Amino acid sequence: MTTSHAIGTVSQLEALFGVPGDASLKKEVPYLHPNYQALIAASPFAVLATIGPGGLDASPRGDPPGFVVVQDEKTLLMPERRGNNRIDSLRNIVADPRVALLFLIPGVGETLRVNGRAQISVEPALLERFAMEGKLPQCVIRVTVETVFFQCARAIQRSRLWAPLPADAKREVPTPGAILSALTESAFDGEAYDRELPARQRATLY
């Protein structure tokens, strides 16, 4: 990309995109309006974005709808389930509490964006509150909300994310084992990994 075609200032951006519509501004509030609370209660999936000394991280979080609990209009509670123990998001939160959440609801075009500051808690009563199948989360992320707004449905509509696939549709993508084998030049037994993965996931879901 040549320098003459690069956008490097806010004024250039504003000239390119124009003025945001009235609705785009009025939908943003510094608290969890009851309608926004309803979207969170219906969502089984969210993306958590964080920033820290090692850079940025965006990772998925999911559970039955309402897994992120609205404690009050300024506070969200999200359980941290067991995973791969990389804890990239948690490392970032310890270093820099700024977070962003993007909530998705199957079949709904609009998404919900929440920005705020997070704290990691291992308070016993809080962990018990989020027990699933008799197992506690590793910790609970408490988010103090700073701004909330819904995102229009265009991205979901363009991607056809919720559209059912045709019966004859085939989407060939590399398996986790195939990826690991390729990245390690076959030093990793990818076939064994793929064969054992479903049972391991079932056993360690919670």
Automatic annotation (TrEMBL):
Where does the record locate the signal sequence feature? none
Q: InterPro entries per the record?
A: Pyridox_Oxase_FMN-dep, Pyridox_Oxase_N, Split_barrel_FMN-bd
* A Pfam family of this chain: PNPOx_N
Please give the superkingdom of this protein's source: Bacteria
Question: In this protein, which residues make up the domain named Pyridoxamine 5'-phosphate oxidase N-terminal?
Answer: 33-152
Spell out the protein name for this chain: Pyridoxamine 5'-phosphate oxidase N-terminal domain-containing protein
Q: Which organism is it from?
A: Variovorax guangxiensis
Q: What is the lineage of its organism?
A: Bacteria, Pseudomonadati, Pseudomonadota, Betaproteobacteria, Burkholderiales
